[in-house]
């Protein structure tokens, strides 16, 4: 809208993604016209295993009421037929800024997204809290409870080491042992 009011022209943008190989030709024409229009194109960019490219057409105010098409020539087009992407008139697609219906729709969508995000946040917090409580309970039962049998005074390593000492000493020394 601002571009149309300020510069008296409009811009169509065509983004082509997921094509391979990277050799591609893009032209712009009026919908029922034969003349190729002057347009600008970005560089072909590699994205993972495929490529993407964008092109844009700036139309003067006198051509904004006409439909335009982006013509894509690529070897992977079905039947080797050029693919045509139709862009409707800039003037037909504009919605007045003061439109209450459009703003209510956007407002409802924003509220719905906000409610979903809030719900997801509280669900995450609840699950995290449950996990912490569960971990505390399990830790208490594994480490905090007394053992099933009384281990006071039971130290098997002491008895075994004492036994080893007893077998190596004489009977006179046994009477002098500290236990």
From TrEMBL:
Protein name (Swiss-Prot/TrEMBL): Immunoglobulin C1-set domain-containing protein
Domain of life: Eukaryota
GO CC terms in record: membrane
Domain Immunoglobulin C1-set: 9-80
Location of the protein in the cell: Membrane
Keyword entries, A-Z: Immunoglobulin domain, Membrane, Receptor, Transmembrane, Transmembrane helix
InterPro entries according to UniProt: Ig-like_dom_sf, Ig-like_fold, Ig_C1-set, TRG_var/const_region
UniProt keyword Electron transport present: no
